[in-house]
Amino acid sequence: MDQTADIVIVGSGIGGSSLAYSLAKSGRRIVILERGTHLRDTPEARDDAAIFQKGFYRSTEEWVGTDGKPFLPGNYYYVGGNSKFYGAVMYRYRREDFAPRPHMDGSSPGWPISYEELEPWYTRAEEVFKVRGDASQDPTEPPRTGPYRFPPVPDEPAMAAVRNRLSKAGVHPSSLPLAIDIDEWLRRAQTGWDAFPNTGAGKIDAETGPLAQALSHSNVTLLTGASVTRLETDPSGQRVIAAVFIKDGTEQRISADVFAVAGGAVQTAALLLRSANATHPNGLANASDQLGRNFMNHNTTAMLAVDPFSANTSVYQKTFAFNDFYNQDPATGFPLGNVQLLGHITGNILKANAPMLPRWLATLIARNCYGWFLTSEDLPNPESRVLVRDGRIVMHWMRSNMRAHETLIRRTRTVMRKAGFPIVLTRTFGRKTTSHQCGTARLGNDPATSVVSPDCRSHDIANLYVTDASVLPTSAAVNPALTIAALAIKAGAAIDRS
Ligand SMILES: Cc1cc2nc3c(=O)[nH]c(=O)nc-3n(C[C@H](O)[C@H](O)[C@H](O)COP(=O)(O)OP(=O)(O)OC[C@H]3O[C@@H](n4cnc5c(N)ncnc54)[C@H](O)[C@@H]3O)c2cc1C
């Protein structure tokens, strides 16, 4: 069965949905192909044991690691992609992230565009995700054309007390920019939202935000359960002419004028590599040999700050962060990263991450702890890459800049102790935590060293775009989703002009 459209988008995550939203008003016939289905509301949606211990929502698709061994990555395939589970932290990259700068173990190359060029697109992304925050609190907040439209999610009393203790310890807590309607979220059940699936409208994710708006236009269609296996070009190799996909067990084709791939940083690279043909023997959009390279994934650590003398009575907890070490470590001068609250840690969540702990101890620690998520920049390296070998995805992640991350852990531990948390436990995440994957099809001006232009268009194939986390040329040290959305909305405007 052959179908046609004006624009085909592969993937309905943050990147694909934001692109569809950006183009919806153009009137062009847009078809989004999504391999997953809608995430339905069932009792498991707010059951921490089902989510964290039993892996109820986990895919069974394995990737192969550097050591040649298969592993189950924390990658989700639903309408809305990984954002169905995200913490809804919608940071802009800091202004300093766009310029080259030295790091403890190397350097970050900067971007081909400035923060100021992306600013209007950040504003549009914040609008569609209804981001709430307060730009006056964070000394690293980049310049903005206007304030956040909605006030921050309020601290619960237990967390207001922690904010106060941290201020007294000398750091500057600032409300997180969040795409959360807290009343709506809590109406379903009294839990946090970080890593919990969004089955209603409480979290504004790719599906409930930009995709919903795009689908309100009759020219936009979503096909679920449609897994794209390859893109085909014309015999000259200059244009993509069709996407081939499997739906309901049968192979189908759809032709279009424009194709955008937004399958997530790993799956996008894999799809374009698998689409190799006689005119593109190394994969589509890969004349530079950069496709799949520069894979980054952030260095991240969970930190539990325990106060044995007072219980954490909060429900959702994740309302603030501090960026005191983001741009500069006071001792070495190097950028270290971001420290933000995790969602409330329960005994079941702790037990899932530390199975060796006896249940009573996990419950006790969870009752008295405050969970933090520490993020440091992973630097681009062409040898850190995604490959397809014998049809299987190989994730050869060479993490970098760990000395900066270890320094961030030390500095944060000192802050926590000063704030009255005598016990501080940490666990650094490894390759299975692929949540902040990016960089496999980086944008740039030079076709020799990048895969797509700053408008996310392939340097090699004029009607092929990549609009997801793949295009990020650096990972910075803040959560990526808003930057992915801003770039995709910007790409939509470029497609509309063409
Ligand atoms: C638990 C968790 C918490 C997170 N918290 C935050 C946070 O607070 N803030 C933040 O900024 N980021 C957060 N992230 C990261 C954020 O969710 C991702 O950076 C973002 O969602 C990536 O969007 P994407 O469009 O690049 O890809 P994806 O989300 O991976 O979307 C790609 C979509 O394409 C589909 N697809 C893939 N291949 C194909 C194919 N061949 N054919 C058809 N469809 C295909 C997939 O099913 C998926 O729906 C979190 C992630 C996780 C897992």
Layout of helices and strands, plus pairs?
Blueprint: E1 2-4, E2 7-10, H1 14-23, E3 30-33, H2 48-53, E4 63-65, E5 70-71, E6 101-103, E7 106-108, H3 115-128, H4 157-168, E8 173-175, H5 182-188, H6 207-215, E9 220-223, E10 226-233, E11 240-247, E12 250-255, E13 258-261, H7 265-274, E14 299-306, E15 320-322, E16 338-341, H8 347-353, H9 359-368, E17 369-376, E18 385-389, E19 392-396, H10 402-418, E20 423-428, E21 464-466, H11 481-497
Parallel strand pairs: 1-12, 2-3, 2-13, 3-9, 4-19, 13-21
Antiparallel strand pairs: 4-5, 6-7, 8-15, 10-11, 11-12, 14-17, 14-20, 15-16, 16-17, 18-19
Helix pairs in contact: 1-6, 1-11, 3-11, 8-9
The structure holds flavin-adenine dinucleotide.
